[in-house]
Amino acid sequence: MSAAQSRKQVMVVVGEASGDIHGAHLAEALLQREPDLLLFGVAGEQLQKLRFDSLVSVSEIAAMGLVELAGNLKNIWAAYQLLRRALRERKPKLLVLIDFPEINLRLARSAKRLGIPVLYYVSPQIWAWRKGRVRQIARWVDRMAVVFPFEAGFYQSHGVNVTFVGHPLLDTVHVTESRDAVLARLGLDARKPVIALLPGSRRREVAYHLPMMAEAAAQLRRERDMQFLCVRASTVDDSMLKSGLRRVGSDIPIVDRDRYDAVNAAELVWTASGTATLETALLLKPMIIIYRLSWLTYWLARLLVRVEHIGMVNLIAGERLVPELVQSKLTSENIVEESRRILDRPEIRCRIVAKLSNLRNQLGTPGAAGRVADLALTMMT
């Protein structure tokens, strides 16, 4: 038996930039508790910085919708086959799945057949669509670690062993630098208002969203003295953002690090639907949520999804707390109109900030990664 085979191994599988961040914090917590653990699986930029054996890169398998997913099926299938083989050959003590049901539910089934315990951290949003998947989770997943309190009740009602661990963003979303210092570093004027652009963490998202954001920014610049910054997700190339922002000008800085400081320096955020909406909410920043899919994906989603809002902030709040511009409503004119309303009416800004503060209190307490790590260690035999 090799030295690697004699060590306790854990497979971790993530599917996008946010899962990579959550996975990295969990990996750090696991290694603090058991430094000799051997971690392997799917990694993005953050997990790759750790002592982690990356078999597949997140960038190879990320996709944003049903139709887009179909276009990436070859890569996803190849990754699934490789990971299933690794499960069989390396026989880890635990399989940790983070969101990304496209691969992860199949891997859960494979692990169950091999007698490998399965911990699912960050639930796929099956309570919004494809609720039938909860039966698969009940059969194949040994423990769900959920990050929203309402998810615990949903899974308990379907006989799933579930623990609410709090939201991991409570540990990561922090401001370390003043607004003036951030803007000076980015070459922006602290006396002028700033809008932050968060076009998404997948290339297809950026392709759909950034041109509309750029056109809206150009329109706003023609009527008022506005500044903009753009936050790059680790899974998106810098060159793609630069190309998309050319129509506005070359003076929009692209933020690669200290993203929370940058978002905190803005008066308003335009963000793609996803984890970024919660990050923005925890910073108590008014936002406009945008999202566009291929029309076929959108049509299919309308048939399948049973929720009133797409933004997680609005879903948790149970109301249209911040504007959502989706599909045909996503136009540069609508972005500009909603931006004027929030920027020019202090009472609207104050109401949004107050409700975002209440929402933060619903997400539990810091320490999610540590709680999940403790769960994981109890599951290893």
Plain-language structure description:
By secondary structure, the chain is of the alpha/beta class. The chain folds into two domains: 3-167 and 364-379, Glycogen Phosphorylase B (Rossmann fold, 3-Layer(aba) Sandwich); 179-361, Rossmann fold, CATH 3.40.50.2000. The chain is 50% helix and 15% strand. The protein contains 19 helices and 13 strands. The protein has a seven-stranded parallel sheet with strand order 3-2-1-4-5-6-7, sandwiched between helices. A six-stranded parallel sheet has the order 10-9-8-11-12-13, sandwiched between helices. Strand 9 (227-231), helix 12 (238-245) and strand 10 form a beta-alpha-beta unit. Helix 2 crosses helix 19. It starts with a helix and ends with a helix. Mean pLDDT is 89; it is low at 64-69.
Determine the CATH superfamily of the largest domain: Glycogen Phosphorylase B
Number of discrete helical segments: 19
What would you say the CATH architecture of the largest domain is?
3-Layer(aba) Sandwich
Order of strands across the widest beta sheet?
Answer: 3-2-1-4-5-6-7
Q: Give average pLDDT, whole number.
A: 89
* Cα distance spanning the termini: 19 Å
Strand content: 15-25%
Low-pLDDT runs:
64-69
Class by helix and strand content? alpha/beta
